[in-house]
Amino acid sequence: MPRHANLAEALRERARDGGDHTVALAHPDGTGGERRISYAELDARAGAVAAWLRGRDAAGRRVLVVLDPGPHIAAALLGCLYAGAVAVPVPAPTASRTAAERTAAIARDAAVDLVLTETAHATETSRRLSLVGRADLTCLPVDRLRPDHGTDRAPDALPARTDPDSLALLAYDAGPATAPRGARLTHRNLLAAMHALRATLGTGPRSRIGGWLPRRHTPGQIGQVLHPLWLGATAVPLPARPFRTDPAAWLRAISRHGITEAVAPDTHYARCAALTPDEQPAGLDLSRWRTALNAGEPVSPATMAAFTHATPPRGCAPEPWSPDTPPPKARPCCSPRAGPRCPVRSSASSTR
Question: What angle in degrees, to the nearest 10, is found between the helix axes of 266-273 and 247-257?
Fold first, then answer.
């Protein structure tokens, strides 16, 4: 018999085991440091979201998740899983008209019933949904919820006992803005993905997993948020916007936060490899970085070769990997002077 019927049960067990002493999330605090959230605190936040959803009979219903990368997206995803609801993540509102059209189309296609967002985006999210005839949707700013450390562990607050083949997540990675296509992911799919990622990447409880791949993409939601939490490791949700135009800032973040597994699209690795000596950040320590995952775009072998040969002075020696060869075994980091072996691993360009 499987140990857990669904991912929510596994995540709740991690929260109980980790408690106040293990860091679940570590994210930039805006001053060059990091804000740390324990498993107990994240569990309390997720429990508050789940309680709100249960109060609206959300089990089995679709919930639009409109949030920036950070602690609130983790609480929202876990809250949906705890309540047996189906999360439908979309990016937070921006000035992009195309993005607004895509969000509206997803809300229609998924037939969402509720919305989880944050205070900064609540008004704009409601306005955009009203323009497509969904003014009836109830929006909850997750950051306004007060975590209750006392009632969230009551018997009726335990994760919903969902069937392994019931829907857990709708991921809209493909299709044009006006007709996006959703991928149906069951609880069985999510648990299988957790085991596959651990086997492929060699991740474990000491991993610190981060990157800037948008969380609306399936690899972002599963690989950078749910997977480290399932491991009992630390997720490092990095904001995507600064790194699109400043690859050096991404390398600094990997160094500053001690990230062990990072992900970015192929074009970003190409920009990092093209940095001139004057543009290279000073004082980088990439000695803890074990795996650089290339995902979200078609992968270029030339980019992988250029990147792995550009980084050894900073602590990352080349060990290329492709889906056609067995993944290299995880090995302890060497000293910064010698540099660890850092395999660059590729992923499919999109989820079909």
Answer: 90
Question: Distance between CA 218 and CA 184 in Å, rounded?
Answer: 11
Alpha-carbon distances, residue 261 vs 93, 185, 240, 275 (angstroms): 28, 24, 16, 21
d(CA 75, CA 142): 8
Tokens 């995540």, located at residue: 11
Q: How many residues does the chain have?
A: 352
Cα–Cα distance for residue pair 203/190, rounded to 1 Å: 16
Q: How many CA atoms lie within 13 A of 281 on its CB side?
A: 18
C-alpha to C-alpha distance for 293 and 291, rounded to whole angstroms: 6
Contact assessment for residue 85 and residue 63, using Cβ atoms and an 8 Å cutoff: yes
Cβ atoms 6, 191 nearer than 8 A: yes
Residue-wise pLDDT tens digits, 239-297: 766 677 788 888 888 999 999 999 888 988 999 999 888 888 888 888 899 888 888 78
What's the Rg (C-alpha) of the chain?
Answer: 20
Stretch (H or E) spanning 287? none
Residues 6+ apart with CB under 8 A from 33: none
* Integer Cα distance of 137 and 128 in angstroms: 11
